[in-house]
Amino acid sequence: MTQQWSTLDVKQLNKIFTPLTFEQRLLMLSRFFPQEDVLYTSSFGTRSVMLLHLVSRFRPKQPVHFINTTFHFKKTLEYREQIANEFRLKVIDVLPDQAQNEITAKERWWHSNPDVCCAVNKVLPLEPIKAKHKVWITGLMAYQTGYRSSLAVFEEQDGILKFNPLIDIDEGEWYFYTDYYKLPRHPLEALGYGSVGCEHCTAKGQGRAGRWKGKTKTECGLHPAGFVNQVQEGK
């Protein structure tokens, strides 16, 4: 079971971690939480490489969980292998329920009901893994969406403590870091994809403008609180 964190605990952690650099935040995490309590997920998208590189430097034994919906671009899967090999990362695939995944493909839920598609192929498969951890490292950045702009370094949500070490980065800092270390970029970025998720729900566009294009949806559902309950209630 994950630990429940009081508001005071989260405030104290934010007071300690917010003034630190991105590198210091990852190092400091080890002083508060043993590695077995920490979950790290990555989409291996266009903005994933910086945190993957930081984790490889400062938490080299940290496994990386990749939610493999089976609907990713082939280029994303190739990029995942490239980064895993280059950074010497242990990547663990998280797969959806096979029957639900097959129904998704047959019914084309990504088109008719993208929230259900995300719930059964992304959010629900991660739930039992989250339940085994106390802290979840995410790559969320405040500048990316309105929802993310209100987040702090630490957020308590649904019984797990979310750690967002890059939340206050700006895009210029991201480019500086990746250029300085000459990090490999997602191959689809050069083709005009500012953000990359599942193939059916990703189009070319600046930033996240190409995600769920033509729909009001801006988040897959992994991070907003109570997403699955809202889907089940038809909201």
UniProtKB/TrEMBL annotation:
Output the Gene Ontology cellular-component terms.
cytoplasm
Could you tell me where this protein is found in the cell? Cytoplasm
The primary location reported for this protein is: cytoplasm
Q: Does the keyword Methyltransferase apply?
A: no
Q: Which cofactor does it need?
A: [4Fe-4S] cluster
Residues annotated as domain Phosphoadenosine phosphosulphate reductase? 39-203
Q: Record's Pfam families?
A: PAPS_reduct
For this entry, the protein name equals: Adenosine 5'-phosphosulfate reductase
- Give the originating organism: Phaeodactylibacter xiamenensis
Organism lineage:
Bacteria, Pseudomonadati, Bacteroidota, Saprospiria, Saprospirales
Gene name, please? cysH
